[in-house]
């Protein structure tokens, strides 16, 4: 049997001082902290600081700027080009471009309330099952391309999280506050041939997360 690992990497922190739910909007770049997160992930995968070098042969990202910028230092560390896969894009969301909250946010407007009627689908955006289907198709393509090695797919929190839920045979609807998918985190899918044999999770940029005791480069 041949072992292959596909890592699902959430992008780093985004520059978003207005607090907009940016969704699939273009032009949202990484913050300085987000850039430092991407560099730290690249160094960790490349084996600095006494960690064994990973065997990454493919780096593929969502087409959105924040994902492409997160992928760039990883691709450079392994001497490969950044590929783009539309299937890794953020989930579509009715509230894209708005602030989302009960104060002066979009939730105070009754016109938006029908979009909240069904959290199981969910009614405010792309169905969970559709996100899982496209993400698994991207994972399968990357597994084939990186056969016997490792691939890094840079995507977004919700698509990564519901993909993990599906692979672990858990229900797809969930409390967003309970997602285990921090900024610049790795959800690692381990395969033997085409069979999934394990799911791992790590936070190589944990020291840079907002609220960490030491935020280097913030």
TrEMBL record:
InterPro entries: His_Pase_superF_clade-1, His_PPase_superfam, PGM_Phosphatase. GO terms for cellular component: cytoplasm. One of its GO terms (molecular function) is phosphatase activity. Pfam families: His_Phos_1. It comes from the Bacteria. SMART domains: PGAM. This is Phosphoglycerate mutase. Gene3D superfamilies: Phosphoglycerate mutase-like. It comes from Cellulomonas flavigena (strain ATCC 482 / DSM 20109 / BCRC 11376 / JCM 18109 / NBRC 3775 / NCIMB 8073 / NRS 134). PANTHER family: BROAD-SPECIFICITY PHOSPHATASE YOR283W-RELATED, PHOSPHOGLYCERATE MUTASE.
């Amino acid at each position: 049997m041949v072992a292959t690992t596909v890592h699902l990497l959430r992008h780093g922190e985004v520059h978003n001082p207005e607090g907009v739910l940016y969704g699939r909007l273009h032009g949202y770049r990484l913050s300085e902290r987000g850039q430092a997160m991407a560099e730290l992930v690249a160094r960790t995968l490349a084996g600095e600081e006494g960690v064994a070098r990973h065997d990454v042969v493919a780096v593929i990202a969502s087409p959105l700027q924040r994902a492409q910028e997160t992928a760039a230092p990883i691709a450079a560390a392994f001497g490969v080009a950044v590929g783009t896969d539309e299937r890794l894009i953020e989930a579509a969301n009715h509230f894209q471009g708005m602030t989302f909250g009960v104060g002066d946010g979009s939730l105070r407007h009754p016109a938006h309330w029908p979009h909240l009627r069904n959290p199981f689908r969910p009614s405010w955006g792309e169905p969970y099952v559709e996100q899982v289907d496209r993400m698994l198709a991207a994972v399968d393509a990357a597994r084939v391309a990186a056969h016997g090695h490792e691939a890094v797919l840079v995507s977004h929190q919700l698509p990564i999280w519901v993909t993990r839920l599906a692979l672990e045979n858990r229900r797809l609807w969930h409390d967003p506050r309970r997602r285990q998918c921090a900024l610049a985190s790795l959800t690692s899918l381990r395969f033997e041939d085409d069979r999934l044999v394990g799911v791992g999770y790590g936070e190589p940029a944990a020291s840079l997360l907002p609220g960490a005791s030491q935020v280097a480069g913030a």
